[in-house]
Amino acid sequence: MTIMNVLSLFGGLGLFLFGMQLMGEALEKAAGTRLKKLLGMVTGNRFLAMLAGITITAVVQSSSATTVMVVGFVNAGLMSLTQAVGVIMGANIGTTVTSLLLSVQIDFAAIFTFLGLILSNLPDKYRTAKQFGTITMGLGILFIGMNTMSGAMEPLRTWEGFQKAMASINNPILGVLIGAGITAVLQSSAASIGILQTLVAQGLIGLDSAIFILFGQNIGTCVTALLACAGTNSTAKRAATVHLLFNVIGTVIFVIIACCLPLASWVEMLSPGNLKLQIAIVHILFNVTTTALLLPAASWLEKLACLLIKGDGSTAEEMKLLYFDARMLKTPPIAVAQLFNEVQRMGGIAMGNFQRAMECFNEWDAKKSEELARNEDVLDYLNREITDSLVEVKGLDLSEKDTKLVGSLFHVVNDMERIGDHSQNILESAQLKNQDEVKFSPKAVQELESLSNLVRAQVQRSLDMFKAQVTDNVLLGEVENVEDEIDTTTEALRSHHMDRLKNHKCSAKNGMIYLDMLTNLERIGDHAENIATSAKSATGI
Questions:
Q1: Is-contact 258 176, C-beta < 8 A?
Q2: Is the pLDDT of residue 399 over 90?
Q3: Taking residues 73-93, what's their average pLDDT?
Q4: How far apart are the C-alpha atoms of 222 and 493, rounded to whole Å?
Q5: Which of 485, 496, 497, 495 is nearest to 522 (CA)?
Q6: Which CATH architecture has domain 328-539?
Q7: Are 516 and 425 in contact (CB under 8 A)?
Q8: Which string of DSSP letters, residue by residue, matches 351-391?
Q9: First to last CA, the chain
């Protein structure tokens, strides 16, 4: 084993990991919208949750990435522990796709890489073909990495030290520990299993010893999720614990089976001659069988995780992001979808503050005033956090649709925050009106109520259109017409009020409060129109 062999081994591993990443990101980008829809499948039905886990993992080519994403969902309150269990079990099945691909005996490396290179460099108008090309090129590079590692490991056949080391792996416990250690270091079960397939294919290790390493690799893949749950709530920690329990229990079961029954011989009979496929079969058997055994007992896994991880007794706070978690950045389409939900939440808070402000203006309520002040702090917090998160997401590899949506969200967040600011201004006018016992004429009260109702309806309409991403020109035209009506009404009321001041029918203090109210209501209407038209800029229609 020379220095060049070692360098070739690590170079091959690098190509393998790069190819897998390239393929996974391209698949994820191509299936971005479908990945978002999968979130709707994750209900209380564990079977559907399992299918979602299988699909997502097959797309992103990493059970660790899926599990980390699930930990983020649970921590954000988007997914319950019950829902997470099914997804985690499905993720373990989905990860077997990679080992199955690697077992193909035909050398597709050069063909896939060359074809992928051509397709990925097509003009942008052939977007689907470009994405397929990137997927194909990633797969080709993955195979090149495997072939490089295989060639680098060939001299190990005659190295006495390596032969002695491999002979000691007949000890099941040692094999499990080695497998767990390799995967923990590489942070990729697909890569560690690929190395194992190469070792077996080169005849450097027998299947009877390799299967114990494989069992340990399933435990090692839990390390990423366990690291990801640092700083999360107790429920998220329990989700990561369920992942660990699943693989530990599965390993115990299969170690006993392998020690008591001729498991290796049976697998060899299923695929004589194809050593890589034998490893893939064991991997599939492990995950499918363990899922079949533990899915019906998922509630017991939950209880065990709850016993191991005690609750922190904390309650959900408003001063935090409820839907988005930084761990979702590993899956950009889902990260965008959850930031969209955060912006919707922000819009609801802004609308609530506007309503409270008007209620306080009509009849002072100290409790509502305090609620508005707290919510204004939440709006300011959300504005900062969402904007920072959008900046991070914008730097990721997004689809054209998601890129436009992220650009639109930057503006919408600002408009919602400004609605909150103007609502705060209205509250200050209400407070001044209450402190100085200012009384408005019935006519002035009617005018302000009429304008505020018009603005309130416009804000609600805009929020609904933003949520549905309405791009219908007729509906958008209605919004513009209402905005024109708000502007016209505001100018008319301002003119009438100036006449009242000239005729000494209104005091200067009353007049100041009245004009401030007109200005803030008109500005809220402007921001509402901006929100309604955001869907048009998000789609480019």
A1: no
A2: no
A3: 76
A4: 66
A5: 485
A6: Up-down Bundle (1.20)
A7: yes
A8: HHHHHHHHHHHHS--HHHHHHHHHHHHHHHHHHHHHHHHHH
A9: 61
The whole-angstrom separation of Cα 539 and Cα 476 is: 14
pLDDT tier, 187 (very low <50, low <70, confident <90, very high otherwise) = low
Give the residue among 85, 36, 73 at the shortest CA–CA distance from 325: 73
Q: Give the residue from 248, 47, 30, 8 showing the smallest Cα distance to 145.
A: 8
What's the rounded Cα separation, in Å, for the pair 95 and 59? 9
What is the C-alpha to C-alpha distance for residues 103 and 437, in angstroms, rounded to an integer? 82
431: pLDDT strictly greater than 70: yes
pLDDT at 306 over 60: yes
- At position 217, the amino acid (one-letter code) is Q
Measure the CA–CA gap between 230 and 253, rounded to whole angstroms.
Answer: 29
Going from the C-alpha of 499 to that of each of 257, 494, 514, 521, the distances in angstroms are 93, 9, 13, 20
Amino acid letter, 137: M
Task: Give the number of other CB atoms < 10 A from CB of residue 277.
Answer: 21
Domain-by-domain residue ranges, the chain?
3-308, 328-539
Q: What six digits make up the tokens of 461?
A: 């309409």
- Residues making up the chain, counted from first to last: 541
Instruction: Choose among 431, 412, 402, 378: nearest CA to 529.
Output: 412
Residues 155/1, Cβ–Cβ less than 8 Å: yes
Which of 104-127 are b and which e, b meaning 16 or more Cβ less than 10 Å from the residue's Cβ? eeeebbeebbebbeebbeeeeeee
**What are the Cα distances from residue 462, in Å, to 102, 124, 198, 380?**
51, 34, 58, 21
- Rounded (5°) CA angle 226-70-398: 115
> How far apart (Å, rounded) are the C-alpha atoms in residues 137 and 129?
12
- What are 75's two structure tokens? 């921590």
C-alpha distances (whole Å) from 78 to each of 62, 325, 447 are 21, 10, 43
Phi, psi of 199 (to 5 degrees): -60, -45
Enter the pTM of the model. Answer: 0.58
The DSSP call for residue 504 is T
